[in-house]
Sequence to fold (250 residues):
Amino acid sequence: MTLGARAFTLIELLVVIAIIAILAGLLVPALATGKSKAQSASCQNHLKQLQMSWLLYLHDQNDRLAPNKDDDSTGDWVSLPGSWVEGNALLDVNTTNIQKGVIFPYNSSVAVYRCPSDRTASTNNPNGLSTRSYMLQVWLEGNEFFDNYLPRIQRKYTSLKNPSRVFAFLDSWNCDSGSFYISPYGYGYEVENDWMSSPSNWHNRGANLSFTDGHVEFHRWNCPKNDNPSPLAAPDLADLRWLQARVPQE
Fold:
């Protein structure tokens, strides 16, 4: 030790450690917030690319929307061949069914089909993540079963009355087939007061959505979207009404 130098006392060391701990406590939440915002921005970019692929497809198909067909004849909801995507995101163990989708040639990147905040495990591969995070609302060229209901399934882009108010893709916490089921409101349907499919809760208690005119939005829910009980609490019902207002209108 250099002559005249003084070592830190135990009290001084404890004070320094305490200051470092306080600074770390302030820094960690800021880093977490920054990471969350970056993931949400990346998710919005993914949705923007999917939406552009969807629009490019219909321009090449004489205004016809990309098919969004699924059924549960196998016991699980599976998107059918010829749809915007095929298979079931929870059951698939690779991205083959994504690559079979009719919009895939317009942006051949499987990465844009997953939200970076989605940590859902694959049912058939517990050590791996599900292959996809996004679904497309059923009223856009969805299951023919809904032709018996109002509003009717939209098959052409020009049939949409207000494209900027119709959501297309969104990140969903129970993403299985490619079709997001939601009942319209105001027609007296039995399920109009319940979630059929559920949006995600990954982005600061919110989700990202694309719209049929091409823009993307973030929407924060009034309450978390996990296992939605029935009947819905008032804030959750308000969230459902918000999304129902964004299905195609007659």
Notes: Residues 222 and 235 are 5 Å apart (CA to CA). The helical segments are 10-60, 96-99, 234-244. Residues 10-60 form the longest helix (51 residues). The longest strand covers residues 206-211.
